[in-house]
Write a structure and sequence with these properties.
Layout lengths: L2 E4 L2 E4 L1 E4 L17 H13 L4 E3 L8 H10 L8 E6 L7 H12 L4 E9 L4 H6 L2 H10 L3 E8 L3 H8 L6 E5 L2 H6 L2 H10 L4 E4 L12 H10 L5 H10 L4 E6 L4 H10 L8 H18 L19 H14 L35 H10 L1
Parallel strand pairs: 3-4, 3-10, 4-5, 5-6, 6-7, 7-8, 8-9, 9-10
Antiparallel strand pairs: 1-2
Helix pairs in contact: 1-2, 2-3, 6-8, 9-12, 13-14
Amino acid sequence: MIYKSFQSIQLSRLGLGNMRLPLQDAANPKSPIDYPAAHEIIDRAYEQGINYFDTAYVYNDGDSEKCLGECMKKHPRDSFYLATKFHIGANPDYKAVFEEQLARLQTDHIDFYLIHCLMDNNIDQYLESSCIDYFLEQKAKGRITYLGFSSHAGVQTLERFADHHAWDFAQLQINYYDWLYGTTKEEYQILADRNIPIMVMEPVRGGRLADLAPEADALLQKAHPDWTIASWALRFVESLPQVQVILSGMSTMEQMEDNLHTFSEDTALENADKELLFEAAELFKSQVQVPCTACRYCCSGCPKGINIPEFLKIYNAWKVDGPWALNDMDKVESEGKPSDCIACGACMGHCPQNIKIPEYMKELGDS
């Protein structure tokens, strides 16, 4: 395991995220955690030198904190670092939440404590609730060692929150796909400019970057046959100088062993490999996404009144982000739904991109 200095301590470059621990019923996301299977993964992480363990008040309805606390109580408390988070939307009583977290984790202090899931619509709640002042008080008492926040906010909100006071660290979603096609690069720079160390979540984008598309995978495998596709994503994040710990939510021992191999030595991507990875990302994007420009020429001739561009936007999100994106189908303002499509082809006659719209409507309708 490789390490990086953080203030006066050494943190493993790979951290264990405890949001995707094995469940008793893998098909049911509300199922309780399978403690024996989860403890096997956590123990393996600890034995191999991972010393940063991340969880949150809301993960698995609190079961994640309990499971982690139960597992780690057998190890010397000064041999690892616990990170957990306060989400104001889950329970605004920050004092009660903090005490409950200490009890769940079976500890008298939290090493890395975070304001959880900063967003554009909750920043004022956090700033006006006095929770930050309270957590700073707990830090002064030694019950919190380092205070930070995790963000899913827009650039302006992130900038505003980062300037609240001298944060010890922050957590961002960083991966090469969002770096190229989202605002991640700008978010990273906001924290880098303020010298705020970054803990990274979703470096493999929820697993989506572990297997791209055939041509993209082949390009990467040819360059480094002994690297998995997922390891390219981890190595990209490792190459960013402001990044401290890279979290991975490992739910199988196979994932654990692959990640341990990746971080057994410093193999952050060189510039030539980054260029190749970006080329693969463009191949992946072009192969999974529909090149709709939302010109809406297709809509006027649709006999079912389907808001085609909006549904194609969801289709693209589905292919890149996963099935959760389909939940937005019901939010689209549209007279017709993809399942109403009769494949008349009227839309295709107006599409400048020559998109085979009925095929995508059918795939969405069948999903």
